[in-house]
Amino acid sequence: QLQLVESGGGLVQFGGSLRLSCAASGSSLDRYANGWFRQAPGKERERVSCVSSGGSTNYADSVKGRFTISRDNAKNTVYLQMNNLKPEDTAIYYCAVSRFRLCASFGYDTWGQGTQVTVSS
């Protein structure tokens, strides 16, 4: 019974940084692929990044070079370090855990509650 709790969202200036955390309980995150998603009002949800069970990472083109996903297996926590933030990054960010080990585009069965990230212009 995997559960996810997100934290770290907030208001940040253009060009600033935030680190989002996703703490898991009930199962080990490194058994599965872990993803970060975001959704802004009126827009489709998009996958921002993911890390596979083995540690391979993927990033959306829109965040590549600015965001970094990582997992601390000892803490059973996934992080999303967001640097050089832009107003376009404003969204609710969700962490999710896949049923698969690899970063497929589907199969994310467990979701966190979401945390708001707002980037001022």
Description:
There is one protein chain. By secondary structure, this protein is mainly beta. 0% of the residues lie in helices and 51% in strands. It is built from no helices and eleven strands. The strands form two sheets. Strands 2, 4, 5, 6, 9, 10 and 11 form a seven-stranded mixed β-sheet that branches.
Cα-based radius of gyration, to the nearest Å:
13 Å
Averaged pLDDT, please? 97
Main sheet properties? 7 strands, mixed
Instruction: List unreliable stretches of 5+ residues.
Output: none
Question: In what range is the share of β-strand residues?
Answer: over 45%
Which structural class do you get from the secondary structure elements? Answer: mainly beta
Helix/strand order, N-terminal first: EEEEEEEEEEE
* Proportion of residues in helical segments: under 10%
* General shape: globular
The total of beta strands comes to 11
- Count of separate DSSP helical elements: 0
N-to-C terminal Cα separation, in Å? 40 Å
